[in-house]
Amino acid sequence: MIELKAPSNIIITDVKIVPLKQREYIGSLEPAWDPGGSKSFRIGGGAFTQIHTNEGLIGIGPSIDKNFLQEVKNLVVGQSPFSVYEINSKLRSNIFAPPYNGNAGVDIALWDIIGKSLSKPLYELWGGSNRQIIPYASFVVLSEPQERSELASSLKQQGWKAIKLRLHHERIEDDIRTVELVRQAVGDSMEIMVDANQAESFQERPLGVQWDFQRALDTAKELEKSKVYWLEEPLKRFDYDGLSKLAELTSVSLAGGENNSRIQDFNNMFEKNAYDIIQPESLVMDGVTELLNLGELAKKFGKRIVPHHGGGEIGLIAHMHLVAAWTHAPYLELLNDPPVGSYEHKLSIIKDPPLVNEGYIVLPDSPGLGVEIDCDFIDC
C-alpha cells in the first residue's frame, strides 16, 4: 500500500457523469471472443466520470453506470480523495455495478486527483521512473492466416514490437498455420502472443470453439517451435489444476486472469502455479487500487503482470501508468486491429494523446493521469 499524505484539507464535493459527443462512426468487427457478435468502433460517444473537489481539482475516470450515481455520491461526497483505499473498499462492499461500467471510474478519478494534488504523474507516485513503455497490438478478429500475416507485416513496418493473435479456429491446423505465417512475416523482430479466449465467457462453456486439455497441450507444443511469448487462457477460468498441469508440460508461458474479479482468485493462481503472467483488468476489479495490490503480490510470487484492457480511453491511460510503474510488467495491452479497430479512434477523445511511435509509448509527465478530454467532445 502506497503511503499517502494529504497536503491540505481537500474534500470531494460532487461526482458527475459527463456525456461525450460522437463525431464519427467507424464500423464494426466480429470479436474472436464473441462469435456472431459485433464490436463497434467510434470516435467519441459514451461518457466519462468527473470527481470535483473544494479546491477546484477535478479528477477523471471511465464512465460509471448512471443507476448507481446517487449511491456513489452518498459514499464519497464529503470524503478526502486521499482516503482512496477506504473509499474503494466501501464501493466494492456496497455497489455491485457491472464490469466496465462500475466503480473503476470513481477509483481512477480519485487517483487522478491525488496525483494532481501532489504534482506527480501517477506512474511516479506509484514508484516508477521510466515513462517509456512497450505496447502490443491486441487483435480483435480471428480472420484467416494469410490476412493476419499481412497485418502483422504492416505493423512491423510501422515499428511495433509485439502483437497478439486470436487463436481458436475450428481446426488446430489453422491456428498453427496462422502463427507460422506471422512468424515468417515478422521474423525475430516482434514478440508474438496468442489468445485462446477459453476463459472469456462468464458462462461455464466458453463461446465459440471449446478446447479440452489435449487441444491446449498440442497447441502449446506447436507454439514452442515458433517461440511464442505466451499462450493466454487456454483452459476455463477456474481450472487452476489443469492450467498448473499444462504449465509443467510446456515451455511457453501461460497468461490469464482478465475476468477474475477477486484477489483470492489470483492467490489461487499463484499457489497452484497456474499462470506465469497475470492479466488483471481494472474495469473488472473496481479500479487500479486492487491492481496496485496485485502488482505487489505478483512480485512476491515472482510472476509477471500485464494488465488486460479491452477499452481504449481513460482506463487505458491508467493502465499505461501502471505498466510504467512496475518493473515486472513487460508490456501494455493495446486493442488494435486497423483500420476499423485502430486504437487511435478511442484515444481521439484525449487532447494530445500518447501514441505509439517506433514501437514505444511515452507517457505524459503532467500530474495525475496527465491527460485532458478534448474540447471537441465536451462543453469546456
Description:
34% of the residues lie in helices and 18% in strands. It is an alpha/beta fold. The chain folds into 2 domains: 12-120, Enolase-like, domain 1 (2-Layer Sandwich); 124-362, Enolase-like C-terminal domain (TIM Barrel). The strands form 4 sheets. It has an 8-stranded parallel sheet. A 3-stranded antiparallel sheet has the order 1-4-5. It has a two-stranded antiparallel ribbon with strand order 2-3. Helix 5 packs parallel to helix 6, helix 6 (172-186) runs parallel beside helix 7 and helix 9 (263-272) packs parallel to helix 10. The chain is globular and about 60 Å long. The two termini are 35 Å apart. The mean pLDDT is 94.
Helix content: 25-40%
- Order the strands across the largest sheet as they lie in space: 13-12-11-10-9-8-7-14
Radius of gyration: 20 Å
What is the strand tally? 15
Structural class comes to alpha/beta
Q: What is the molecular shape?
A: globular
What is the CATH fold-level name of the largest domain?
TIM Barrel
**Fourth-level CATH superfamily of the largest domain:** Enolase-like C-terminal domain
Question: Short description, anyone?
Answer:
The protein has 380 residues and is of the alpha/beta class. The protein folds into 2 domains: 12-120, Enolase-like, domain 1 (2-Layer Sandwich); 124-362, Enolase-like C-terminal domain (TIM Barrel), CATH 3.20.20.
